[in-house]
Amino acid sequence: MTVKEIALKCTKAGAYFSLGGIRLYDEYDNIYPIKFSIKNSLTSNNFHIMGKDITGTVSTKNSYGTYYFVDSPFDTDKSIVTNYPNVNYWLSSSEDTINISFDKSVKISRIDFVPYCGNGADRAQTTVEAIVKDEFQNVILQEKYSTSTYAVNQVYSALTPTLTSFRSALLKSNENIYSYESNNAKYDTKMTSNTTPSPLVASASSIYSSSYPAWLAFNGTRTNVNNCWITSLLTDQWVQIDFKDKKRVSHIEVVGMGVNTTSSPKNFTVFGSNDGISFYPVLKINNQTNWGTFESRGFNFNYVVNYRYYRFHIHDNNGYASYSGVVDIVYSHKGSDLLKLNNSSKKSFVYYGNTRLFDLNKPIKEVDYVLEGEYTNSSKYILIKKTIKRKPLSISFN
Q1: Long-range contacts formed by 28-31: CB under 8 A, 24+ apart
Q2: What is residue 312's predicted lDDT score, i.e. its pLDDT?
Q3: Given a cut of 90, is residue 219 above it in pLDDT?
Q4: How buried is 165 (Cβ within 10 angstroms: 0-12 exposed, 13-18 middle, 19+ buried)?
Q5: Of the candidates 18, 24, 31, which has an alpha carbon nearest to the alpha carbon of residue 4?
Q6: Of 250, 276, 316, 376, whose CB neighbour count within 10 A is largest?
Q7: What are 170-184's pLDDT values in tens digits?
Q8: Is the model's pTM score more than 0.90?
């Protein structure tokens, strides 16, 4: 599966929260070698995965310090089993969660952790809950592990059927063979001004000041309290992006405010338009309360829409008296294609049926037809493929 965020939430049995020996495994069951440029950060630290173009952040609200830093559990060059003072676990008396976030989606097949690494029974946990989200903020794994009877340095693994999925599968109906394939698109805008990168254009009904323009809602930054769009009025304010061409959208991710979280939207509507004049409601959400700091929430549309302009309209916030705002907005499409194959050969299975499929609970966009041809030149096999949008009247290969 591909993962964007992981949260490991503890319920303490003694005086402290603790977690150790956190290991993340790739699709081949190899440990990702996580490295930090500078170690021993109390509450937040950036890492990279050696040999991969992947970076990320581990964070919590509090760490006990001295030995028990937020980055300590990720020492993959140390044994999971350790004793004081050669510790590799996080310890805190006032916070119960370690959060892991990646800059891009990462293939993860297993998550290992140790609820209690020794050095005092007051550091034991009663439960550890693993919450895993994909790039669309879908919760793809949520499992709570009872750890009340575990031994010191016992390793738990977050590995359930929800961690195993496929991106495509072969289906048969009425003697026809189809390949069902996931077709996802996330529109990461990464804007640096209201008109860059071209051809994107961001605009808003109002801004609190020039320090909080519309484009800050589309620049992808999610942990800076000053990096947000803020309104000058409280109610019925909007921020809009013009993609310049139509984008198929079925999901929106919204990141709430980093300070004054009651200024985050409570009731809002997403509108779509193709001319920038006539706007049509495509998603209406109410009663979004109790926003956490920089909390991200995802919302699925009831159907797939296809517009050039998307307007995020805040009707009212959660009670803050000075302004409303958001830190980040990302539009995306989660759908599927159905390809009709001309045969059920082994090659059809290899090319269209054996890769990973995320989720079958999605609308099918359309049915395409796939033509195949092959020839052998010495020992070389070549597949000729063409996808068309309608059933062919005849088939020939030249």
Answers
A1: 28/109, 29/109, 29/110, 31/76
A2: 98
A3: yes
A4: middle
A5: 24
A6: 250
A7: 777 777 777 766 667
A8: no
